[in-house]
Design a protein that fits this description.
Keywords: Oxidoreductase. This is Gfo/Idh/MocA family oxidoreductase. It comes from Lentisphaera profundi. The protein is built from ten helices and 14 strands. It has about 325 residues and is α/β, with parallel strands linked by helices. The chain has helices at about 15-25, 40-50, 55-60, 80-85, 100-115, 130-140, 165, 175-190, 280-290, 300-315; strands spanning about 5-10, 30-35, 50-55, 70, 90-95, 120, 145-155, 195-200, 210-215, 220-230, 235-240, 245-250, 255-260, 265-270. It folds into two domains: about 5-125 and about 275-290, 3-Layer(aba) Sandwich (Rossmann fold), CATH 3.40.50; about 130-270 and about 305-325, Dihydrodipicolinate Reductase, domain 2 (2-Layer Sandwich). An eight-stranded mixed sheet has the order 8-9-10-7-11-12-13-14, covered by helices on one side. A six-stranded parallel sheet has the order 3-2-1-4-5-6, sandwiched between helices. The N and C termini lie far apart (about 45 Å). The protein binds NADP nicotinamide-adenine-dinucleotide phosphate. NADP nicotinamide-adenine-dinucleotide phosphate binds next to helix 1. NADP nicotinamide-adenine-dinucleotide phosphate binds near residues 11, 77, 95, 124 and 177.
């Protein structure tokens, strides 16, 4: 298997974790870092053993030796930065949320097709073994006809601690940052929703500090979820059927500990080796090795569907980034 040379664009908080995952992957090499600051790029490169550092995203993307670029900037730059990389003929793994909205997502997918490169959203939970386990339990009718799903992803922060989360021009707010995980779980298990409702407690800058949303799926399955950047939650997900429950224990988005209650109680532990992000990196490496331009797991159709769900929920909760940029 050919070694793939990875570049990181925007070496911030999450990039550190994904850098570790690239180093853990079977045929990924961390080759170059691009930051707005050369010192920062060089420091990151030194810490993670990358050979090259750039003080411009454009120059990073122009490096002929690179195969793939991981986009780790704030949401509002995902479209622009992914397109710079793809126009330089680089494959792209782009952080979640894939884009600010479905329109940007379409532009990115068209750009990938035009430049004949691979493109995927870094929604890593979809590659974890626990995701497959829950789907198997549902397919085996382990809890009978499904009635409800509940989940949340919340944490308590402030503009002083994490300015990006509260800044509308960077796509701040709870839904796109963390709410995307419970919605991903719901849509992974039940498909895309037929109906929705949403409301939010907005900050004075107009992003959702706490957001609440209900989705209704085929066969009447109803999901009730919430997300917050200003309060804690229990981080648990529960699927309730007529004959029992599947509990995905905290943190539900890692799907590592699952309990099936259906007359008796059975526990499933579905750990994985290495970092949370390693399996998605292996997926990208495999897809590129096989000449694929999209992943069958986080396919364009999946990501576009998720972006439409996010757009719909944001519209209903009154969060509009485009008027605030
Ligand atoms: N998959 C996950 O589990 C996960 C977890 C956390 C975050 N994320 C996603 O990853 C993305 C980045 O999140 P993060 O928490 O790592 O962000 P962060 O640390 O605040 O910022 C990431 C980097 O973006 C670059 N950047 C470019 N323009 C910027 C601007 N105007 N303001 C601030 N930074 C700018 C900066 O790099 P330079 O200055 O060095 O160029 C910065 O270090 C978000 O879209 C987020 O949703 C994913």
């Amino acid at each position: 298997m050919k070694t793939l040379k990875w570049g990181i664009l925007g070496p911030g908080r999450i990039a550190e974790k994904v850098a570790e995952a690239i180093l853990q992957s079977e045929n990924g090499e961390l080759y170059a870092i691009g930051s707005r600051s050369l010192d920062k790029a060089a420091d990151f490169a030194k810490r993670f053993g990358a050979s090259k550092s750039y003080d411009s995203y454009e120059e990073l993307c122009a490096d002929d030796k690179l195969d793939i670029i991981y986009i780790a900037t704030p949401h509002s730059f995902h479209c622009e930065h992914s397109m710079i990389a793809m126009k330089h003929g680089k494959h792209v793994l782009c952080e979640k949320p894939f884009a600010l909205d479905a329109d940007e997502a379409s532009q990115m997918m068209n750009c990938a097709k035009k430049n004949n490169v691979f493109l995927m959203e870094a929604m890593w939970s979809r590659f974890l073994p626990g995701m497959k386990k829950v789907k198997e339990l549902l397919a085996s009718n382990a809890i009978g006809t499904i009635k409800t799903f509940t989940a949340n992803f919340c944490f308590s922060s402030s503009p002083e601690q994490k300015p990006r989360l509260f800044e509308p021009s960077l796509g701040g707010g709870a839904l796109l940052d963390v709410g995307i995980y419970p919605v991903t779980l719901a849509c992974s298990f039940f498909g895309f929703p037929l109906k929705s409702s949403a409301r939010a407690d907005l900050t004075d800058k107009g992003v959702d500090a706490t957001s609440y949303y209900n989705l209704e799926f085929v066969n009447g399955v109803k999901a009730e979820m919430f997300s917050s950047i200003v309060q804690e939650g229990d981080s648990k997900a529960v699927i309730t059927g007529e004959e029992g429950q599947i509990i995905i224990h905290a943190n539900c988005w890692t799907l590592q500990s699952i309990t099936l209650k259906n007359g008796k109680e059975t526990s499933f532990h579905t750990p994985y080796e290495g970092s949370d992000y390693r399996l998605q990196i292996e997926e990208v490496n495999q897809c590129i090795e096989h000449g694929l331009k999209e992943s069958s797991v986080n396919s364009f159709q999946w990501t576009q569907g998720m972006m439409q769900v996010m757009d719909d929920l944001r519209e209903k909760m009154g969060v509009d980034y485009k008027t605030k940029m």
